[in-house]
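Researcher: Can you fold this with iron/sulfur cluster in place?
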Amino acid sequence: GGICTPSQWLTMDRLASDYGNDTMRLTTRQTFQLHGIVKHDIKPTIQAMHQQLMDSIAACGDVNRNVMCNPNPVEDKVHLEVYEWAKQISEHLLPNTRAYHEIWLDEDKVVGDTEEPVYSERYLPRKYKTVVAIPPYNDVDVFVHDMGFIAIVEGGQLQGFNVTVGGGMGMSFGDHATQARLAEVAGFITPDQVLEVAEEIVKIQRDFGNRDNRKLARFKYTIRERGLEWFNQELAERLGYALQPARPFEFISNGDRFGWHQGFDGNWHVNLFIENGRIKDNIKQGLQAIAKVHQGDLRITPNQNLIIANIAPEAKGQIESLLAEYGIDDGTQQSDTPVSSATRQNSMACVALPTCTLAMAESERFLPEFLGEIDALQQKHGLAEQAIHVRMTGCPNGCARPYIAEIGLVGKA
Ligand code: SF4
C-alpha cells in the first residue's frame, strides 16, 4: 500500500545519500528504489531498513510481490478497512523461508527445510502481482496484474470484493506467444473469504503455471490457455464453494488527485507531483525537512507520486510553507510552486537507462523532453487543460504500464 512513517522516509533518504547515488526512486508498485549501491554496502543498507521495520523479502522472487492498494486517505473509513485487507493479503502470502534473515541480518541458520504451505517446495513458476482497487479510482490499474480485488462498497459499508485474474504487462518482441493482457473478472467474494481465496488462486498458478518456458510462466498465460470457466471450476473445487456473480462497479480515473484534500477526520493530505518518481535535489531536501516535522505519514502512489498524509489542521501552514520554500510542485495548478502541465502530471516513465540492465532505450531521461513537445502541441491546439496519459518504458517488460496508456512508448533495439 506504499505507506511509510516520516522516520522510515528519513532512513531511506539517508541510505540514498550514504550508500546510493543521492537520489531515491518512487516506483509504479508503490516501493522505493535506491540506485548505485556498491556490493559491500548492500548488507548495511538492508540492515538499516530492517531496523526501521522495512524489508525487501522476496522482492525479486517467484512469489507474490508487495500488494498494492489505493493510498487515498481522504474518503472514509472504508479505505482504511480495505488497506488493512491489502496488508493481510501481503502478510499471508509471504514465503516463510529465513534465507533473507540468514544472509542479510546474520540470523543463525535453521537446520532442515522451512514449511511453505502456500508455495510448497518449488515456489511459483514466476513472479506474481496482486493489487486492491477501490472504485471509482483505479490508480493501481487493477486489470494489468495477476490477481486483483475490486472493493465493492454499498451504503458506506464494505460488502466484499470482485476478484480479477490473469492480467499482466510484460511481453517479448518477436515472440508472438507473449502478450500484454487484461485481467478478467472471475466473481465476487465477501471480506472473510479474501485470504483463503487469494491463497487458493496462488496455488492454482503454482500447480498449473508453465514451468517449461519462463517467458510463458506468468498467470495470465495459464488463464489464457485454460480459460476463465476452467479457473472458476478449479477454484470452487479447492474452496468447496463457488464465487458469487460479480457485482457492478465503475472506475472514473486511474490518475492521482493532486493538491490538497481534507479527509473525513478533518486531517489534510497533499498529493504532490514528483516527475517520474525521482526524489533528488530540492525535492529530496524539501521532503527531508518535511519528514523531520511531519506527524502523519507518507504514501507512495501507484503513479510514482507522493501524498503527505494526515496533516493536522494546525500543521497545514507549516507544510505549505516548506513546499513553497523548496519549490515542490503540489500539483494544484494554482500554487506559487512550479506548475506542470496536466499531461506531464499524468505521465510516467520507468527508470530504463542507465539504471535498468534490461533497458534497450531511454525512458526516464527522455520523457520530460518529449513531453515538452506534446505540451507545445497541446498549447497550439487549445488543448493545454486536457491530460493525455503518456507512458514510456525502456523495454517491453512494461514497468510503467505503457500498454494501457493513451500514448504508450516501448523501447526497442
Ligand atoms: Fe522495467 Fe524494462 Fe523499464 Fe527496466 S527498461 S524498468 S525492465 S520496463
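Model: Folded with iron/sulfur cluster in place. The chain has eleven helices and 16 strands.
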